[in-house]
Amino acid sequence: MEISQKRGVAANEIERPQMEINMKKFVATAFAALAFAGAANADVLTERNMPLDIAVEAAQAAVNACAAKKFNVTAAVLDRAGITRAVLRADRAGPHTVDSAIRKAFTAASMRTPTQKIAENVGKNPAAAQLVSIEGFLVLAGGVPVKAGEETIGAIGVGGAPSGDIDDECARAGLEAVSAKLK
After folding, report:
1. In the chain, what are the domain boundaries?
2. How confident is the model at residue 65 (pLDDT cuts 50, 70, 90)?
3. For residues 43-47, average pLDDT
4. Which CATH architecture has domain 52-182?
5. Whose CA is closest to 102, among 73, 131, 70?
C-alpha cells in the first residue's frame, strides 16, 4: 500500500509540470489570437469637427444678433469634445457671461440637445434634475448643438441676455449664419 501511494505521488509530480506548460501555451495562444482578431477588425475612426473659421463666424453672428436687440452677450463655440474654439464677448457684457456661454455650449455639445429642451425636461422629470450636478453643465436655455448633417460637430452657447429664450434666439441666429457651410 505504501508503494502505490508513492507511485501515485511520483506520477502526479511528473504530470503537473507538463500540465502547467500546456496551460501557459494555451493562454499565450488565446491572448495572441484575441489581439490579432481585434486588430484585424478595427477601423480607423473618422469624425467631423468644428473648424475655427466657422466657430468665429457663428460666434460673431450670435453676438451681433443680440446687439441688434440691444443686449450685450458672450457667445462661445465649442467642438464635439467640448473644447473651446471661439469666445466673443460684446462690449459691456458682464464678466459672468463668458462662463455662462461656455457652460451652455458644453452642455449642448455633451448632450447633443439644445439646453432649452434639457431645461424643460429637468423641470418635468425629477430624475433628470441631477443633470445640474454634472461638472461643466449649465441647464439654462441658450446652448444649441451644431450639426453637419446628422453628426454633432460642436455647439454654440450664448449668455447675458435678460432671458434664456433670448440667448437661445441669438445662438440660433449664429447657427443660421453658418448653416450653408455645415452641409
Report:
1. 1-42, 52-182
2. very high
3. 89
4. 2-Layer Sandwich (3.30)
5. 73
Sign of the alpha-carbon dihedral angle for 67, 68, 69, 75: negative
Mean pLDDT of 151-173: 97
Which cell numbers hold the place of 108?
Answer: 449642448
pLDDT band at 24 (very low <50, low <70, confident <90, very high): low
Mean pLDDT of all residues in the chain? Answer: 88
Specify whether the CB–CB gap between 77 and 155 falls below 8 A.
Answer: yes
All three cell numbers of 77: 463655440
Dihedral angle sign, alpha carbons of residues 171, 144, 94, 162: positive
Task: Provide the residue type at 38 as one letter.
Answer: G
Number of residues written out for the chain = 183
Name, in order, each residue with C-beta under 8 angstroms of 57's C-beta and a sequence gap of 6 or more: 177, 178, 181
